[in-house]
Each structure stands twice: as structure tokens, then as C-alpha cells.
Sequence to fold (412 residues):
Amino acid sequence: MDKTEKQEIKFTPRRPSGFLYWILVPLVQLLSHILIKARFVRDERIKERKGPFVVIGTHTCIMDVAMMMLAMKPVRLNIVCGRDVFTWSKIKPIQKAAGLIPINQFEMDLGSIRTMKRAVEAGCSLSLFPEGKFTLDGKNLYYLPESLAKLLRLLDADVVFCHNYGGYCSRPRWYSGFKKGLVTNKSELLFTREELKSLSTEEIYAVLKSKFTFNDNVYQRENHLRYKCKDPASGLHYILYKCPKCGTEYEMISTARHLVCEKCGNTVEYTEYGEMIPSEGSVGFDRIDLWYEYERESAREEIAADDFELRYPVTWAEEDDTNTYRDVGEGDFYINKEVIGFSGKRYATDEDVVIEIPLAKQPTIVHKNYEAIDLTVGTQINRFYFRDVRYSAKFNILVEESYRKLKGLPVE
Fold:
């Protein structure tokens, strides 16, 4: 019996503790007004349904789960989250009482699916973010798995959809802290159980694809929304790593309000209104997502080369039985036309280790701002820290564009 089977047998779904939930909900409600200007637009039809519910949402910012909890109260939600969440020190003491359900990100996790099914059959309502990661550029993830439609039919529950308009603007993945501004959570009854049974998988997926299409950069500009902070550009170099003037990569730095190329001096201001304003003689893009798309285009050119391969030195860490990451080895992290992986040595035994995942099975990756990448094999999370403290954003794009090419997906 392998580790995955043992964990599945031991894990029994339970509704979140009412005591814990009703402590958290008022606290979350208070924070949602202190940290951001939260507003809720609720579909009144949800109150007419008895549940259980599967509540699906876009993943725009760290407040998504909290806003979903508030939108669905008094319904208590079992949150389906990546196994990495179980390593967070603040989560460990409450993970059982919160009824969290672990899932492997970006792969078919049959054990987790069975757990979700048992939870719904027991009357639990689920919180699920199908994109599996926060948006990096304010747009929806380019790929939404068609298996999501099949999963919803399998779970056989009313489906509610949630989206936070302005969520990315208030807490983008690359920024540390919150930008005070309006975030509007809209929840709607997307499918009833009866509708799921009557619609085809293709019809369900078409609706899902439409709902999971958004661009917070455009939303902010069209509505002229301000997200107040002292340093709107701080951290933006994590994802906007390529200079649009000289084309150099990883020479960009961010100050409080500017992106600056240290090689050619190209300077672009990023404002609280989401504007990108080049200084005199400099070159820029009008929005973050347009700059990010420029980097995607460059990545597509790279992977088109017959001899495409990149590799950089990394430190390798494993998640242990205490849900803590410990350095266990070092070597090279690499990507070529077929695989993404690691080759190196384990400290304890000095043995050679190779970890590879076919790109045809990897639509995206878990990307860390502190320049690391996670690869999960089975239930084992492997974390790779780049020695040069860079490259994770580029690897993320290369993986997504490689998957797109291998699967013949269109370039939008």
C-alpha cells in the first residue's frame, strides 16, 4: 500500500467545526473591510436551495477563500486546497477542525476526488478553485480542464460560482500587503443538481469557460478604480522580468512606483489606477497583462527552437512527515521540449536523483515569489529554490506555453 492509499483511508471528510467557523467568519468580515473595501452581490436563488453546494471560484487574490465564506454564510464550506497549504504554520493547528481537503494541483488526483464525493454525500458543501493557483497577470489561467464539467456532474450538488472583481488589483500575487480599494464579490447559482443532469458535458464546460474568463486590469481601467498604497509597483519585477526596450531578461528592478531596467535605464511608472506610464525616451506597455503577453510571445519563440533547453542550479527541498520543507539535495532544474525536471544529488546518501514530469501532463506549475518552483509527484511535494534568486516566473510561462504547443491549444 503506497502513501497515497494510506492517506486516503485515514482521511474522513467532516463538516468544519461550527465553533471555529463562527469565530473565523466575523473576523474575516472585519478584515475584509479593514484591508479592502469589500462589497457583496449575492444571488437570492442560493437561499432557496438546501444544498449541499459545490462553490467554485476564480483565484484572483489571497482573499478569495475568505470572500467566498462570507458570500455563502451560513453555509459552512469544506475548502479543497493544494497539499502545500498543509505546510503553512498558521493552518496546521486548525486544518482538521476546518475540514480542509487536500488535493494535488494540476493533475488527476483520484484519491481527493473520492474524498470530495464522500464529503458531498455526507452533506458537506465544498469550496473549490479549479484554476489551482493565483493569477499572475490579472487574467484567467489560459487553460481550464474539461474534466471540471465531469467532476461537477459526479459530485451531484448545486453549483455556485464566485468571482472577486478587483481582487487582483487589491492583492496581486507579486505584491506584499494589501492595496485599499473596492473588491466586489459576485456569487450566482450556476447550475442546480437537476440542470447538471440534463445538460451535456460540453454544454456545462461552455458555461464554465465563459465564467472563468476575466481581466482585472481591464476592469480597473474601465471603472477608473484606485487601489491606495505607498508602493504600487513594489514586487512587479517578479513577473515583468523582460525589458521591452533592450530585450534583456532579469535586469528589471521595482521601486515603490517604477519598473527600471538596470541595463538600459528604461523606466515605467505603475500607478494606483493600474496605469503604466513610460518616462521620456522609455518604452512600456499599457497594462500588466500586455507586458506579460510580450514575455509569453518571447517564450513561444524560445521553445520553437529544435535545441531548446534551459537549466539553472537549485537547492532541492522535500516536504517531510511534519509538513515542513527541509533541504535534502542540490543540482540543476531544467526544461526542454518534452519534460520539466531536476537532476542532482541527495545530501544524506550522495545518490544521483532525477525527477521529471512530462510537459504534456503539466498545464502550469506552482510558482513562488521568493523564486522557487514546486513539483508534486504522488503526494510528495518537491520544492526547488533557484540559486540566482530568479527564473520562477519565466519557467512558469515556459511550462504553460509548452503545454499549449504540445496540446495544440490556440494562442488567444
Observations:
- The longest strand covers residues 325-336.
- The chain has a mean pLDDT of 90.
